[in-house]
Specification:
The protein is mainly alpha-helical and about 110 residues long. About 65% of the residues lie in helices and about 0% in strands. It is built from seven helices and no strands. The longest helix has 18 residues, at about 60-75. The chain is globular, with a radius of gyration of 15 Å.
């Protein structure tokens, strides 16, 4: 992984983005259009900014945050895999398991 220094403006933008996303992570209907409305920028602007700062498309950024939340929940033994999937904003436990394994190299059930 490579690192780059972000500007104060970029840091403020990411913090604002996280303030919008994190309280709604468990909501499967959290989406880019809703985020754009709350931040007050177009889809294209959001895409450009998020990719330039994080290296990820906005949907992938949201998915990454959800997967990290799920990982923490599993490590803390907070519910079964289906519960963890729903609490992390995935509405399909089997899609969640596949996505989790792709990201972390291990099935969620192998961690708990």
């Amino acid at each position: 992984d490579t690192f780059r220094i972000i500007t104060v403006e970029e840091e403020k933008f990411i913090n604002r983005l996280l303030d919008i996303i994190q309280p709604s992570l468990d909501q499967p209907d959290l989406n880019v259009d809703g985020i754009c409305k709350q931040i007050g920028i177009s889809r294209a602007q959001l895409y450009r900014k998020v990719v330039s700062i994080t290296g990820m498309a906005p949907n992938n950024f949201i998915k990454e945050l959800r997967l990290k939340k799920a990982f923490r929940l599993i490590k803390r033994n907070k519910g079964n895999i289906a519960q963890v999937a729903y609490e992390s904003g995935f509405n399909n436990p089997s899609y969640f398991s596949t996505t989790f394994q792709r990201r972390f190299g291990v099935l969620p059930s192998e961690l708990s």
